Amino acid sequence: MSLTLFTFPNNYRAFKAQIAAAYNGVELEVNNEFKGVSPTGKVPALSTPQGTLFESNSIARYVARLRADTGLMGSSFFQSAQVDQWLDFCANELESRRAIWLYPIFQIIPFDGPSYGKNKNDLKNVLKVLDSHLLKNQFLVGNQVTLADIAVTATLVDLFKLVFTPSYIRGFPNLVRYFTLMINQPNVAKVIGQVEFAKKEKMAPKPKKDPKKPAAKKEKKQQQPQQKKAPKPKNPLDCLPASKMVMDACKKKFFLCKPFNKEWFDGEFFQNVFDTEGYSFYVGNYKYNDENTIMYQTNNLAKMWFQRLDQLRKYGWGRFLITGKDEETGPFETRTMWMFRGQDVPKEMMDVDDSEYHTFTKVDVSTDAGKALIRQYWTCEVDTDKVENLTVLSAGWFK
User: Fold this and answer.
1) Cα distances (Å, whole numbers) of residue 286 to 155, 260, 293, 302
2) Residue 43 belongs to what H/E stretch?
3) Which residues in the chain come in under a pLDDT of 50?
4) What is the pLDDT of residues 64-80, one digit of tens each?
5) How far apart are CA 44 and CA 18, in angstroms?
6) Which of 129, 190, 210, 215 has its CA 20 to 30 A from that of 89?
7) Taking a C-beta distance cutoff of 8 angstroms, is the pair 204, 104 a contact?
């Protein structure tokens, strides 16, 4: 079978098909003259006896499927779906953020400071997903290299070579271990070559300033009175009567001891500190706990929800618990306890789509039962305590 891959040198998108071809023993001729090959005008494109294919993931899937015995698309229908899952994750979450960081360095797009800073933080959230999965898995799918590993590795190569400094990737040891394993696979190394990790972040060139031009003579215009901008509407929670309780001060007091100041919370907090008129407690339950069959995925869902709640930080403080029989036996239950400014669930909570999958029930703080429920959620410890006869397997704070 005659296959020709049209691309340009060191194109990470073409690496996917080239590595898959190496694993499958497929001869793939590489041609750098690609004008007019793809209807999109972009590469890679693959010429086959049946016609031309474009889009890198489609090309890679085609090459991977040329042999079933190598398992590049997984060894079952479920694993095949998992491979597709990670390919979509790579395209939607990883490649787009790779482009924002690296394209200014390659001078494909101009450097933009705010986008650069935000993208670096957003990419960390994506890497956390990979690192969490790789905590208990050597590869992304099953027990061998699949197209999912090939695509993710190819996408990460330039990031590790150019911008992933030791301090940036310090928090992702499982990902670093995995990437090191992948780039040393013979079929990967023969395509991408040697990868030397960045010691210092490569920065995009600073945008050139326009040469100064002589100022044009300004025509005299009648001065018009400037219209005052309408004041920005205040958040209703900021308009509430001043409270004797300061939430940030409570957080500092509560976390004064590690893991938390349980004695202060059990005693002084409810007796002398908590403002029942200015604040309220709500218990939250995930509506679809029966679908939480894998522990690490359940944990990631809760953590990513908390990460999207930045706008709530001024008005809320919460804790999630993952409970179950043990870490191997699902389903697992996601539970939360929240302290909110005011008496209702804030708009900032419900503006985040994930919150729609949770029900929130107000806790009657005037009763001993209500206080006991709050204490149970707020002060229970992982692997030690139980909530509703289920062991607390994981916990996290929004503060």
Assistant:
1) 34, 25, 14, 10
2) none
3) none
4) 999 999 999 999 999 99
5) 11
6) 190
7) yes
Q: Give the pLDDT score at 225.
A: 65
Residue-level pLDDT at 221: 55
pLDDT at 220: 54
Whether the CA torsion 149, 150, 155, 157 is positive or negative: it is: positive
- Quote the CA–CA distance of 143 and 139 in Å, as a whole number: 6
List CB contacts of 20: < 8 A, sequence separation 6 or more: 26, 60, 63, 64, 72, 147, 150
Pairing relationship of beta strands 4-6 and 29-31 according to DSSP bridges: parallel
Backbone dihedral angles phi then psi of residue 173, each to the nearest 5 degrees: -65, -35
Contact between residue 371 and residue 358 where contact means Cβ atoms under 8 Å apart = no
Angle between helices 295-307 and 113-134 (to 10 degrees): 160
For residue 264, the model assigns a pLDDT of 87
CA distance 284 to 247: 20
Architecture category of domain 4-64 in CATH: 3-Layer(aba) Sandwich (3.40)
Q: What is the DSSP string of 112-158?
A: -HHHHHHHHHHHHHHHHHHHHHHTS-SSSSTTS--HHHHHHHHHHHH
Domain boundaries, the chain: 4-64, 77-192, 244-398
Going by the DSSP 8-state scheme, the letter that residue 322 receives in this structure is E
Amino acid sitting at position 223: Q
The predicted pLDDT at position 215 comes to 55
**3 and 29 in contact (C-beta within 8 Å)?**
yes
- pLDDT tens for 82-112 read 999 999 999 999 999 999 999 999 998 888 8
CA 326 to chain centre: 26
Confirm whether pTM is higher than 0.70: no
Looking at domain 77-192, which CATH architecture does it have? Up-down Bundle (1.20)
pLDDT for residue 297 = 86
Q: By C-alpha distance, which of 86, 192, 89 is closest to 145?
A: 86
CATH architecture of 244-398: 2-Layer Sandwich (3.30)
